[in-house]
Automatic annotation (TrEMBL):
This is ATP-binding cassette domain-containing protein. It comes from the Bacteria. Keywords: ATP-binding, Nucleotide-binding, Transport. InterPro entries: AAA+_ATPase, ABC_transporter-like_ATP-bd, ABC_transporter-like_CS, P-loop_NTPase. The keyword ATP-binding applies. Gene3D superfamilies: P-loop containing nucleotide triphosphate hydrolases (3.40.50.300). Pfam families: ABC_tran (PF00005). The keyword Nucleus does not apply. Belongs to the ABC transporter superfamily. The lineage of its organism: Bacteria, Pseudomonadati, Bacteroidota, Chitinophagia, Chitinophagales. GO terms for molecular function: ATP binding; ATP hydrolysis activity. SMART domains: AAA. Residues 4-227 form the ABC transporter domain.
Length: 297
């Protein structure tokens, strides 16, 4: 089942084309990261999906059906930091949130436990660390046990400890079977928790799919031979090899798809080149992202 299927969504604000023809599918159980530089349209997209904004054109389905109020109740949304009362306890703040959202008060103990706040539930909000404050915000979203969570920049403004806490919580929620859609520009964080990504730039979708596939498009080989010049020439003639560069003692070869080291080795042996060094290198999502978003094509 597709939790969210976005089809060809476009949105303009005056002269600004915030989104143009964006389509992708979020499978059940995914931790789906929506990535993009500032102003790329992430918040606009989440706003449309959560009914805060209307798309100019295009459509989307939730749980394989046209979006309705019933389906929206299965989605917990955190688009901006909620206004908690600083002088009230975490527990009392959740009581107020439950009343506003018409969720059962009996669910409060469960979400506090889920978000690791049981021990501090009666302390006032103002005494919480930044990470605890954000975990309380996520606890509030989890009231009523929604199947899907939509989080906009959930680690924004947090210190490294807070980021780690929120990352752990997202992992736990995903482990419990929730589907999580989160917008972020913190690539390292996304790489650590997300199973899938959609990369936006200037409102256009550049790439979407599983993180492994997106990153593996940017795998490259490091090779070394007695004659690195002959190695370079042979590699340039290899199908799919797009660039070859001598970097110190090693030749770095980039391909248009993830290379198969054994096949490359075999091919080079047939050309009479015996390798002394062969290693498949993986780029981080951050590097892959920078290449994808900086690519003028
Ligand atoms: N209400 C609005 N009125 C006019 N322009 C808007 C409005 N909301 C967004 N925009 C513009 O639309 C584009 C996309 O903005 P959006 O906030 O969706 O990007 P974003 O990827 O979430 O950015 P950030 O990471 O900075 O939050 C930007 O150029 C922004 O200035």
């Amino acid at each position: 089942m597709s939790i969210l299927s976005i089809q060809n969504i476009s949105k303009k604000f005056g002269a600004v084309q915030a989104l143009s023809g964006v389509s992708f599918d979020v499978p059940q159980g995914a931790v789906y990261g929506i990535l993009g530089p500032n102003g790329s349209g992430k918040t606009t997209l989440l706003g449309i999906v959560t009914d805060v904004l209307k798309a100019d054109t295009g459509s989307f389905t939730l749980f394989d059906q046209a979006a309705s109020a019933r389906q929206r109740r299965q989605i917990g949304t955190l688009l901006e930091t909620p206004n908690f009362y600083h002088y009230l306890s975490g527990y009392r703040n959740l009581e107020i949130a439950a009343a506003i959202k018409q969720r059962d008060k009996n669910d409060i103990a469960r979400v506090l436990e889920l978000c690791g706040l049981t021990a501090r539930q009666h302390a006032t909000f103002k005494t919480y660390s930044l990470g605890m404050k954000q975990r309380l915000a996520i606890a509030s979203v989890m009231l009523g046990d929604p199947e899907v969570l939509i989080l906009d920049e959930p680690t924004n403004g947090l210190d490294p400890a807070g980021i780690a806490e929120v990352r752990e919580l997202v992992r736990n929620l995903a482990g419990a079977g929730k589907t999580i859609i989160l917008a972020s520009h913190l690539l390292d964080e996304v790489e650590k928790v997300c199973t899938h990504v959609a990369i936006l730039r200037n409102g256009k979708l550049l790439l979407s799919g599983s993180v492994d596939v997106v990153i593996s498009r940017h795998d490259y080989l490091e090779l070394g031979a007695a004659d690195n010049e002959a190695l370079k020439s042979a590699l340039l003639a290899y199908p799919g090899c797009t660039s070859v560069q001598l970097n110190g003692n090693v030749v770095v070869a980039v391909f248009n798809a993830s290379p198969e080291p054994a096949q490359v080795n075999n091919y080079l042996a047939q050309q009479g080149i015996w390798l002394q060094h062969l290693q498949l290198r993986k780029k981080s999502l951050e590097k892959a992202f920078l290449e994808i978003t900086n690519d003028p094509a």
